[in-house]
Design a protein that fits this description.
This protein is α/β, with parallel strands linked by helices. The protein contains 17 helices and 20 strands. Among the domains are: 107 residues, Succinate dehydrogenase/fumarate reductase flavoprotein, catalytic domain (Flavocytochrome C3, Chain A, domain 1); 139 residues, Methane Monooxygenase Hydroxylase, Chain G, domain 1. Strands 6-3-2-10-17 form a five-stranded parallel beta sheet, sandwiched between helices. It has a five-stranded mixed beta sheet with strand order 18-16-11-19-20. The protein starts with 6 loop residues before the first helix and ends in a 13-residue tail after the last strand. The structure holds flavin-adenine dinucleotide (FAD). The site of flavin-adenine dinucleotide has 44 residues, from α2, β3, α5, β7 and α6.
């Protein structure tokens, strides 16, 4: 007997409904920051998260947050230099007004977080400590030991949960955005993960702050909750994803488990070596060496491995041995422990085995610098779920935590402004809500076909093999036909768990549906962009082509097809130039 029946059969006609001014999907740094600034203006906010807020993926960030701080930075540095590094690092696909905002607000946001209670590491003279991250002309990365994300997340959670206007729904899975015939956002459909009960969260504004999508790739530094749900919800509802062909691969994931070895290690002086002991980055980035941006270092590692200078199994070495025991223990304890516990390597004596793995998504829901999506009235996005176009074709390390806070706040303020005048629409969306719930159940109604786990593994391998660090026309076409096939198969897939109590398989199957929608869009956009820029490297078009491709990709999902259009990059002060390091 099937337990996944239609909503009418399983629960009766009445659906639970909760009404808020705004719903924030995601309780990471971006979601909490937005929620706080909406609630501060007196609006009622629901924050919905698959996990307890402080278990959101932001907690995993070790390395730090970039900031230019007046009087506490290199005397030659400036916010303009920081914006320039961000733009050059992003291979000139960055909207320059966004980069300027990020840089000019960076010092202020670190100061705010300190006042809220996050204590950053200090230099002996009491000023906030700083280290280099890749692509920085001057060192700008600030840190709280090697648990920066954790410290910031706890601090912002304390703030957001301290206001009366925020209700938290954790271990709730948001499945769909509800949009009416006027393209106005009306709320979300979400399931209580403890018992699969659906509820319609009615709201005048929705902020998508649902984080990244690393689970699309066979090798990723991300946690299992990063399945790209927010991107897929926005696509299905008719909003564009911007620049989805730009996926970041981090150079140093631990071999073989793919746990991140933070860029902080290279920032503190660790170097990459091949099987001959050579510091091979001298060949690829003679000036910045190991601290070139991530796209360049990842490709260099892969070339070393392909040309036979890697170690058996496919990895290179990250050498910390010259840094000394005390320094490693003080600054890089997590990297040391990860290498010891998950690769059996004592980093004080031997090199850590590393290879690239998927790490970050530069693409995201199309929004402006206030987090507003132009396609749907009342839809906002922030953090990794959004594409403000501040990272362009390649994000610089430690700019993401900064983005979540700067643009999370901008978005929260913009939502509150919007709510001051937005009325409650009167048209009835009950039928749309019911259809959405039934569609969720239908994803798992089959008792035969393929198990969802098999489809997932095939998808992850396809993305890694053909939509990874090196891409070409043939490979991308292979990927598209495989993704099409898998999208067909999910209509007949099954899950083994039939209970209604903590049925994680049910939610994994919904996540798979989301991942397939997103994969289709990424592969299409990658096939269309016939140039190489930042993290998008086409073997058949190895040069950057500003003449034709200095533009953002906009992708829309229309059933089985993807519609693509383009819009210009915003250039304020910095003309594109050759990107050498
Ligand atoms: C290992 C690692 C280390 C990193 N280190 C750094 C660093 O040192 N510096 C830096 O700047 N950046 C770093 N990054 C990147 C950075 O941490 C992330 O980009 C950033 O924290 C994302 O924050 P967010 O608020 O957008 O999303 P997240 O913190 O990922 O939160 C997403 C939220 O959405 C919720 N959610 C998702 N889908 C649903 C759904 N369907 N229903 C309900 N809720 C949902 C989740 O439960 C979660 O609460 C690192 C990334 C990784 C993977």
């Amino acid at each position: 007997m099937l337990i996944f029946e239609t909503r009418e059969n399983s629960r009766g006609p009445a659906l639970d409904k909760a009404t808020y001014d705004a719903v924030v999907v995601g309780a990471g740094l971006a979601g909490l920051m937005s929620a706080y600034y909406i609630a501060k203006e007196g609006f009622k906010v629901a924050v919905i998260s698959k996990v307890f807020p402080t278990r959101s993926h932001s907690a995993a960030a070790e390395g730090g947050i970039a900031a230019y701080i007046e009087g506490n930075s290199d005397p030659n540095d400036s916010p303009d230099y920081m914006a320039y590094d961000t733009i050059k690092g992003g291979d000139y696909l960055v909207d320059q007004d966004a980069a300027e905002l990020l840089a000019y607000k960076s010092g202020e946001i670190v100061d705010l977080l300190e006042r809220w209670g996050a204590l950053f590491n200090r230099q002996p003279d009491g000023r906030i400590a700083v280290r280099y991250f890749g692509g920085q002309t001057y060192p700008r990365t600030r840190f709280v030991g090697d648990k920066t994300g954790m410290a910031l997340l706890h601090t912002v959670y304390e703030r957001a949960s301290g206001t009366d206007n925020v209700d938290f729904y954790y271990e709730w899975f948001t499945w769909d955005l509800v949009v009416d015939s006027d393209r106005r956002v009306r709320g979300v459909v979400a399931f209580d993960m403890r018992n699969m009960t659906p509820t319609f969260f009615e709201a005048r504004a929705v902020v998508m702050a649902s984080g990244g999508m690393g689970m699309l790739y066979k090798h990723s530094t991300n946690s299992y909750i990063n399945t790209g749900d927010g991107y897929a919800m926005a696509l299905r509802a008719g909003a564009a994803l911007k620049d989805p062909e730009f996926v970041q691969f981090h150079p140093t994931a631990l071999y073989p488990s793919d746990i991140l070895i933070s860029e902080a290690a290279r920032g503190e002086g660790a170097v990459l070596r091949n099987n001959k002991g050579e510091r091979f980055m001298a060949r690829y980035a003679p000036k910045k060496l190991d601290l070139a941006p991530r796209d360049i270092v990842s490709r260099s590692i892969m070339i070393e491995i392909k040309e036979g200078r890697g170690f058996p199994g496919g990895y290179v070495g990250l050498d910390l041995t010259h840094l000394g025991e005390e320094y490693i223990k003080e600054r890089l304890a997590l990297a040391y422990e990860a290498a010891l516990n998950f690769a059996g390597v004592d980093a004080m004596k031997e090199m850590i085995p590393v290879r690239p793995a998927q790490h970050y998504f530069m693409g995201g829901i199309d929004v402006d610098i206030k987090g507003r999506n132009p396609d749907l009235i009342g839809l906002f996005a922030a953090g990794e779920a959004a594409c403000v176009s501040v990272h362009g074709a390649n994000r610089l390390g430690s700019n993401s935590l900064l983005e979540t806070l700067v643009f999370g706040r901008e978005t929260g303020i913009a939502v509150a402004e919007y709510l001051k005048t937005a009325s409650w629409p009167s048209s009835d969306v009950a039928k749309d809500v019911e259809r959405s719930v039934d569609q969720a159940y239908s994803v798992v109604k089959s008792e035969s076909g393929r198990h969802f786990g098999e489809i997932l593994e095939e998808l992850r391998s396809t993305m890694w093999d053909y939509v990874g660090i090196f891409r070409n026309d043939g490979g991308l076409r292979n990927a598209l036909s495989k993704i099409d096939q898998l999208r067909g198969e999910i209509n007949k897939m099954y899950v083994t768990d039939k209970s209604k109590v903590y049925n994680t398989e049910f939610f994994n199957a919904l996540e798979l549906k989301n991942m397939l929608d997103l994969a289709l869009v990424i592969a299409h956009a990658a096939l269309n962009r016939t140039e190489s820029r930042g993290a998008h490297y086409r073997e058949d078009y190895p040069q950057r082509n500003d003449q034709e491709w200095m533009k953002h990709t906009l992708t829309y999902l229309r059933g089985k097809t993807v519609e693509i259009s383009y819009k210009p990059v915003k250039v304020t002060r910095w003309k594109p130039e050759e990107r050498v390091y």
